[in-house]
From TrEMBL:
The lineage of its organism: Eukaryota, Metazoa, Chordata, Craniata, Vertebrata. Keywords: Membrane, Transmembrane, Transmembrane helix. Residues 20-451 form the Major facilitator superfamily (MFS) profile domain. Residues 206-237 are annotated as: Disordered. This is MOT6 protein. It is a multi-pass membrane protein. The keyword Acetylation does not apply. Gene3D superfamilies: MFS general substrate transporter like domains.
Amino acid sequence: MSQGEAAGHGTAKPQDRGWAWMVLLAAVLLQGLTLGFPCCIGVFFKDLQHEFQASNSQTSWFPSIMVAVLHGGGPLCSILVKRFGCRFVVMLGGLLSGLGMVSSSFCKSISQLYLTAGLITGLGSCFSFQAGVTVLGYYFVRWRTLANAVASTGVSLGFTLWPLLSQYLLDEMGWRNTFLIFGGILLNCCVCGAIMRPIQLAAGSLPQSGKPEEEPGSRAEEAQLSNGASPHHPMLQQHTGRTKCFQVLQKYLAFDIFCQNKGYQIYTIGVTWMMMGFALPHVYLVPYAIHNGVEERKAALLISVIGIINIFIRPLTGLLSGHRVFTGRRIYLFSLAVLLCGLSNFICVISAEFSVLILYCVILSIAMSGVGALTFQVLMDVVEMDRFSSALGLFTILESITLLIGPPLTGLLVDITSDFHYVFYNSSFFLISAALFMGLSFCALEKKNKLREAPKALLNNPSRYQYSETSTESKAENQVPPAVEYITSV
């Protein structure tokens, strides 16, 4: 038995009551500490540029690396959760996050900041957040949907509080001492992890398969052995090594789904392209406002406005999209939210006055709430739930690549032109084109599937999603998801 499995055999805890609500509170704090943290980096943008004499492009690599690792570290987090359990991984993430920010306060160059705050803190935040979300699936069965919705409010709280705290500490003691304090604050992830005690699952609570899955390549190996090949034969050992490598890739990075499922293929490409422009306002909004004469405290307040509105709008969006009226149509709601994000950027181009920027933040926040609430619901619609974890692995890896390169490339354009308007032009281009691509492609795919399956229309279950090439079966509510599950948030 692995240590991760052993961790799951702790003292039995009641599900959906008692200590489960303490775990939910810890999950709310974790999401505020981890997912909410990158939003405050824009507050330090000008100070870091001045300190290290860095360009916009060079400075933007720091938050880009942090966010990319936060989103793309899912497969590694999944492996650690399976091996050591959720509690250990959450606490490990807290230690890494705190260590990264404390080390950042002593950095002598911008490149050192890439390693400490970017890579180490980003990886720690990834571990804490994703393992913290996974453990909710064990503590909640009946109220699992509600628990995840409540936990996601932590992101909005982080968006609200981190920028205000950052600006206050920056004014009082400078960015180095602020980063040092941030290291101490992020160590509270370890406290949240300590609350997440292992829970013993009731017999039969895990999904049971009637027949063990046959591993790819097992038949070929059996055939060679039956023909007299020794299990220690070099050719057989080489084949076995390739088979195990293929199994790992198949488990955490579902390339087969990407090739076979057109719905997943379109959605993954669309979201990956979208992420080139999605993070740009978060990185450059505060520098843009300060550059146009807005007071620093007011500029930091802009990000907090986005967070405050998210607190109320995101849960409402999630509840609305869950209504049966939108069954099979959530992809179009998602595309509409992305389109609104792109169109809202033109408000900043029109004027940089504080009142106009507040209006921009209100509209952007409403659109962002739709994107955040629907991203993974749509993914669950287009892939089978038993392959969701591996499909999510490839999905997050690809989007992390564009999250990494988007802000620095835009920063390079701003350095060349000395015009911050290109931030919002770029963001609008990627968001609007991604929204149109996804919406029109799914519409065409749905029509194609309807024509193909017209003779069988009366036999089909109308509740199934017609834009997916694979039928999706919802898990029973009393099933607990496997420990190897990683979830990100936009």
